[in-house]
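Components:
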Amino acid sequence: MPEPSARHLAPPAPGAPHPNAPTVLVVEDDPFLRTVLIRHLTSVGHPVRSVGTALGALREVAGAGCDLVVLDLGLPDLDGADVLKMIRSVTDVPVIISTARDDENDIVRLLNDGADDYLVKPFSGSHLSARIAAVLRRSAAAAPPTTHLLEVGGLTVDIRRREASLDGQRLDLTRREFDLLAHLAARPGAVITRKQILAEVWQDSYGSAQTIDVHLSWLRRKLGETPTAPRYLHTVRGVGFRFEAPDDRH
Ligand code: CA
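Structure:
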């Protein structure tokens, strides 16, 4: 069956956002880029507000609020990392960092400081939309723990019974491996740093970032994959990991 064309998907006229569509706050000081982002987000149905300064962003977040923030790191008045901390001190609203600096240390620090995801400029509108959808999906899923059963592709994790299976085959996991897998499977598509794993999964009790790599490599082996041919567990170089269902394409 042919894919329905975009024309049939209730095209929103610019300025006529979908009712109930999440409101996006665009924080970007480059007027050209800001216009491009607003135009794209509006065209896919988001109500959009925009500001060009950190103080403007803080005013918006503390005032009318929004459902998601796209935050440029290079703002004229305050450092983006400080803006993120200030936003986090008042709200858990999802924040996607937009950065021109492909600086891995910065990205790791920002993820540890509460950013939900990041995009390195230049990025396409469809890439931004995909990240926004994934982040909103995760934040909705994170709200109520409605199930003890996590499913990602062919992987099933039963939190209550502490059992996991892949494609119907029971996985033989150690306690640490299970904790790690359950944490990853609860956040499909999210970038997760080693520091987050240490803090949130192991509460620093099992040691260093290097030991995480050791446990991840064992876990990876039990999932039947290798770093060069990953299916579920993807390394984000210099940053951390993404856990997601493998493509059905071969
Ligand atoms: Ca900028």
